[in-house]
């Protein structure tokens, strides 16, 4: 499933259109990590329990986060945990 999500993501990277997390113009000169860090923590889709999916994947022993994303994901994890409790 993870590979299919990555394939879908990479296939859509070239497309320029708003998704559920951003609805404004995006500076395409920024990296994916920089864009992610700028996204506001708004609708967390609590009714869909997406936070539970994130926590499951984030805490799974097989997850390998690229070094450049470790701090970003740790910060997001902390912020999401506070937001959903």
Structural class: mainly alpha
- Form type: globular
How is the main sheet built? none
Radius of gyration: 14 Å
How many domains is the backbone divided into? 1
The tally of strands reads 0
Query: How much of the polypeptide forms β-strand, as a percent range?
Result: under 5%
How are the secondary structure elements laid out?
Blueprint: H1 2-12, H2 32-38, H3 50-58, H4 70-84
How would you describe what is shown here?
The protein has one domain (2-84). The longest helix is centred in the last third of the chain and has 15 residues, at 70-84. It has four helices and no strands. It has helices at residues 2-12, 32-38, 50-58, 70-84. By secondary structure, the chain is mainly alpha-helical.
Descriptors:
single chain; 85 residues
Short description:
This protein has 85 residues and is mainly α. The chain is globular.
């Amino acid at each position: 499933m993870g590979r299919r999500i990555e394939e879908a993501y990479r296939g859509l990277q070239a497309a320029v259109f708003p998704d559920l997390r951003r609805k404004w113009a995006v500076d395409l000169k920024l990296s994916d990590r920089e864009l992610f860090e700028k996204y506001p923590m708004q609708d967390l889709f609590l009714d869909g329990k997406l936070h539970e999916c994130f926590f499951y994947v984030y805490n799974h022993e097989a997850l390998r986060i690229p070094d450049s994303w470790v701090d970003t994901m740790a910060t997001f994890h902390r912020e999401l945990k506070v937001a959903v409790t």
